[in-house]
């Protein structure tokens, strides 16, 4: 599903160069739920931007569903991102004056796909994320947890190949965070949705199939739910 091969990313401020990613190798299987953790500045959010086609690597290759993002022209990458990648952000990034229904429908409008069939799909998503009765409520009047539910429905209504979540519970208390993580797990489990989530919270990472630890711009360590010491690892990390 996702192959990252020897990816580097450099930024320049004047003549000063900063290497954020220093040769990242990563494979993510179709239907896998992966959490990426690491300290601030380790490169995890930069990697997520590259996976989403929001930026391009300095060197290396990024392949998603047999498409080479780093070889695409900007226009083609924009279309690929709109149709194949779903995004969920920490600050929700909803249109505050639009309703729940309008926010969820927005990417379908942008891609010229809104029809009676899709209107039915939107209502199904509203039910799935538990927002029945709030269809006509403006996003700015919702709680944080409700806004994040709208954001998840909006990200998934186009049936993306990959869902990228950048600190999706960062602005929520533990109760609301668990609700959102349970919802993501439901889409992963029931619809085989591939999810890549950046988080600083080991509690959130514990919902994933695999945890990838970033350090100094490279993958430092990985641990899978299939590993016998997975539970022990989480317990030690949270202690």
Automatic annotation (TrEMBL):
Keywords: ATP-binding, Nucleotide-binding, Transport. The keyword Lyase does not apply. Residues 2-235 form the ABC transporter domain. One of its GO terms (molecular function) is ATP binding. The keyword ATP-binding applies. Pfam families: ABC_tran (PF00005). Belongs to the ABC transporter superfamily. PANTHER family: ALPHA-D-RIBOSE 1-METHYLPHOSPHONATE 5-TRIPHOSPHATE SYNTHASE SUBUNIT PHNL, LIPOPROTEIN-RELEASING SYSTEM ATP-BINDING PROTEIN LOLD. This is ABC transporter ATP-binding protein. It comes from Sporosarcina contaminans.
């Amino acid at each position: 599903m996702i192959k990252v091969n020897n990816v580097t990313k450099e930024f320049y401020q004047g003549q000063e160069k900063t290497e954020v990613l220093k040769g990242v190798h990563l494979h993510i299987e179709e239907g896998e739920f992966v959490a990426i953790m690491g300290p601030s500045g380790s490169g995890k959010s930069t990697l997520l931007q590259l996976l989403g086609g929001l930026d391009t690597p300095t060197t290396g290759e990024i392949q998603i569903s047999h498409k080479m993002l780093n070889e695409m022209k900007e226009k083609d990458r924009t279309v690929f991102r709109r149709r194949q990648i779903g995004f969920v952000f920490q600050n929700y990034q909803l249109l505050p004056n639009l309703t729940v229904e309008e926010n969820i429908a927005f990417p379908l409008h942008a891609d010229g796909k809104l029809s009676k069939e899709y209107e039915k799909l939107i209502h199904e998503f509203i039910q799935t994320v538990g927002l029945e009765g709030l269809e006509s409520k403006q996003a700015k009047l919702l709680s944080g947890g409700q806004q994040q539910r709208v954001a998840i429905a909006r990200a998934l209504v186009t049936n993306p190949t990959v869902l990228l979540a950048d600190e999706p519970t960062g602005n929520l208390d533990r109760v609301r965070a668990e609700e959102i993580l349970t919802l993501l797990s439901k889409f992963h489990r029931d619809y085989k949705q591939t999810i890549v989530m950046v988080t600083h919270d080991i509690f959130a990472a514990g919902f994933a199939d695999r945890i990838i630890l970033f350090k100094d711009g490279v993958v430092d360590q990985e641990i899978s739910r299939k590993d016998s010491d997975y539970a022990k690892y989480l317990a030690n990390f949270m202690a």
